[in-house]
Model the fold of this input.
Amino acid sequence: MDGFGVSGSNGCAQEIYKLPSPERLRLFDLLFSPKEAGLNILRNEIGWTGERIAITARLRLTGLTFSFGGDARENAQFSLLRQARKRQDVLLSSCLRTPPPAWKSNQALDGSGSLLAQHYQDLAEYLVGYVEYYEKLRGQPVHLVSLQNRPDSGDLPVGCRYEANQLRDLLKRVGERFREKRIRTRLMVPETDWRETLPFLKTLLDDREVRPLLSHVGVQSSVEPNPGADAVDQLVRQHNFNLWQTQFTSPGGNSDEMDDALDLAQTLIADLLRGCRAWLYGAILATDAQPGRLGLLDGANTGFRVPKRFRALVQFSRFIPRGAARVYATGGSAPVAAFRNPTERQLVVVLVNAKEDAVNEAIELRGYRLEDIEVFRTSAEENNRAVAPTPQAGSKLRLTLAPRSINTLRASLKQVSPNQLR
Done:
């Protein structure tokens, strides 16, 4: 696992900085403190207002070619990143939502236009400038750059449309330029939903020059069924890409918060079982840029409110650390995902019971015994509450999952001989 994260893009970071200082600090602790959600990935938006630095300017002496410090949205995102880094190590994943409009076919922000071919090299230099601005001036490495958010969608208020062959050609230009500049930042495409990802990937992989330039595949999940997801997973595994789910957002209009939480948890488990190494929620707070979609937290007058969907994400993010390896789990009736933390020899198991009645499950390991067992639960009445585990019998642990609940078990692993299991 690379971890779990959230986005400060679409003007979300600016909304956070409108909150009173005590509320902002509470929000930062909830999101990034290891004792709370422990999110370790922050998704930024690469602004389209970067300015080329004049060759006579003092900043040019440092090797920088573009400045991104004149954009209020960008500066708010960087301030959010600094607060996250005060609380733990954070991976920065930056996503382009549109190239500078002057380089597009319609010279507009909206997604109906496409990047003109004569500006592919300009955009490659722009992205080099962005990474170097962060690394040299702000002291922050950019772990990942996504070349375009939703290249398949032409109706976004801020966007850019690409056919698969156009995205392939752009990836070549950017990847080659990063290589020439010895930039270690990884590249991600295509950031579409599961249904649209496969056609893009097939076109990219048909070109032998592209494969060495690409390391990450981005998908965006929803609560609706995702046909084609298994085929994407198979292709990603075959080529050993890193698969990230980059922007799930809960739809508005649901009157029951626990329904939102259960939908999020079940989507998350499905994505983790498909091999996603990172899972990111969308905006921290809802903005006008995504009408009808909910933030991870709810804005409320001069503060914010913590909904159940946040608690659902915590059931995963607080307990599954970066570097954890997924463990194959089978049997039972509840959706389940299991992980092993190699550094601390711990097992983490997340189970979801969306039913109206309690469900009994058993966890059994071959060759291991669970010790120091902890169980945490979110339900309609509980928020990540520690609950007493059922006593273990040999290698088997029985769990009663409360109605409509999300349950996380964490325990130390102790290897035992076959005689000890009898």
Observations:
- The chain is about 30% helix and 25% strand.
- The first helix runs from residue 12 to 16.
- The mean pLDDT is 93.
- The radius of gyration is 22 Å.
